[in-house]
Sequence to fold (163 residues):
Amino acid sequence: MQAARGGGCACGHVRYRVKGEPIYTNNCHCRLCQQQTGSTGVVNAFYESDRIEVLQGRLSEHMMVSGSGGPHLICRCRECGTALWSIYPRLGRLGIGLRVGTLDEPGALTPDAVIFTESAMPWVTFPEGIPQFERTYDFRTLLPAERIDRMLALMGRRESFGA
Fold:
């Protein structure tokens, strides 16, 4: 496993550490991400949940509805409300979507894909060299084998646990 990255909320109450590289990183422009962030979208890095450790502070959990209609849990700093990561229906509590902007060095992660470009604000431009999709994509067609294996392992665990 590779080095750990640190991050935290806007007020400093919550600090966390995440180990290794993400399974994948998406820059999402869907309407739900726009509404939840109050911005043009969000960049999420997806990790196995056992790779993240809260070092200090307390989180609150806020249930939203995901684009698929399933439960989308946003974990926020209990003090300032910064969204730190999400738990999505596809993986349950086995995986998290870490908000890249909360990392101490957010520029260290480059998205694997830009998704939901169909709902991006009309003046948003997308970076060259990063695949773009009107909606989403099949991770098996884009990611290297090692990261595909990690994702499939998580999906298998979810099915066997009913997590």
Remarks:
- The beta strands are 4-8, 15-19, 24-28, 42-48, 52-56, 59-65, 71-77, 83-87, 95-99, 113-115.
- Residues 85 and 95 are 10 Å apart (CA to CA).
